[in-house]
Amino acid sequence: MSEKIVVIGEARDGELRNVTFEAIAAAKQIQSDGEIVGVLCGKENLEQQAQEMIYYGANRVVTVAHDNLETYTPEGYGQAVLAVIEAESPGGIVMGHTSIGKDLTPKLASKLGSGLVSDAVEIQTDGDEVTFIRPIYSGKAFEKKVITSGLTFVTIRPNNIAMSERDESRTGEVTAKEVDITDLRTVIKDVIRKASEGVDLSEANVIVAGGRGVKSADGFKPLYELADALGGAVGASRGACDADYCDYSLQIGQTGKVVTPDLYIAVGISGAIQHLAGMSNSKVIVAINKDAESNIFNVADYGIVGDLFEIIPLLIEEVKQLK
Amino acid sequence: MNIYVLLKKTFDTEEKIAVSGGVIEDDGAEFIINPYDEYAVEEAINQRDAHGGEVTVVTVGDEDSEKQLRTALAMGADKAVLINTEDDLEDGDQFTTAKVLEAFFADKEADLILAGNVAIDEASGQVGPRLASSLGISYVTTVTSLKIDGETVNIEKDVEGDVEIIETSLPLLVTCQQGLNDPRYPSLPGIMKAKKKPLEELEIDDLDLDEDDVEAKTRTTDIFLPPEKEAGRVLEGDVQDQVKELISLLKNEAKVL
Asked: Rounded to the nearest 10 degrees, what angle do helices B94-105 and B127-135 cross at?
């Protein structure tokens, strides 16, 4: 099988997100000898991003620039991407399982009358048969999924499929496609930045998460400092969110986000089953808790029993010395 | 206002998952309303109380789904519809569920449809946007605030921690994110009243569908549990030394620093 695969790219603050490159790598796994066509939407200046997609393995890229594509809306991006898909008639589509990916792909699947495997973390191929592995029950279990009819349409979880090496010697055609984006009933009036600077929770390699043991919103400050020193993001348990120590958008668990960073540092988190579901597939887990009987120590690779308010500042010092 | 809620039953979040022969064992498991759908039910009731109208909760499920529908009625929803696919559909996927709902909504005049942002079991988050798309109405996912003024709807949407301020209009489908509201517990009088509220049961025949129309596009071939994590090392000694040891282990043994 050597069918064409369309990879829908995604930028944040003018920079392509890593998951875009991971999606290109995923497309290659699905279709080792098929053409990979990138799609990019935005207001203007998409050529450089298109080049990046080519450096990471796309054979060519189609851009759609329009004033109505400055911010993502399902209507605007839906029209743009559908126009490209209809022109390309690919055998498959890959996109990141991000906020935009989750929002856009079901619409595309509905319009295309297609199936969609969401949130794949691994792709296995055996001849022409492609199997996707995805977490269910927030990672308490995994399922293997195959496409039985129609498009091979998948979203991939950030941070799980390795991207290819960037190679500036790769070349490919970048074409601008004109699409008239009309009839937008939904308008983004404003965006209020609340997320921790720079590093997004779902894409973070390092997460420092706090629980009830952190005791207050102020208690989270050292966690932010540690996360900054490690180049990571801050997360929280439901307990900490319910107690208003931090925003619900930071919640990790069965309700909330499911994360798989390289390093997860659980601070003052007891480890309720719902929280473990959201983080136990992290590669390395560190637990810091004053209660040695806490459940969190059962999933931790390394644990320190003690007072987090004493331990975290020491950790920050050590990490800073490391750099 | 004609308000609908899409609801799904899921395993209680306390449940441990057991797998046997590639399928999840659900014998004796406790089921609940999907937690994100609870926000949808609560929001629907609040919007009805503010703007008038009627709240109908709809589920695609089996006979046992009646329990979760009754809970939603006890919370304050007015009517419930159970689309029972147990006898007709073996292995539906999100395409299937969205098609069934599309057929159900074909002759309905829905002003507002609310759903959970994701179900905590299969977690695809597809059915809401798929349905809106096939009904030709706008949708906004992961909403944390919903204000309706006539036809105009002002929304706050969670986007990976940031908040988008959105203006759109009815008819509309939204999916609900944590932080939108605090779902109520059903009161005892509510539970008593719920027993008498209308609960309509439909099968896919009643929706003029046959199995071929809704045949799944994807198939689950296996389900397995992640490898058990072995309990790790709890460090010992002076706090300062423990911290130093931890850093060294993360750097040299785990190689994550």
From this structure: 40
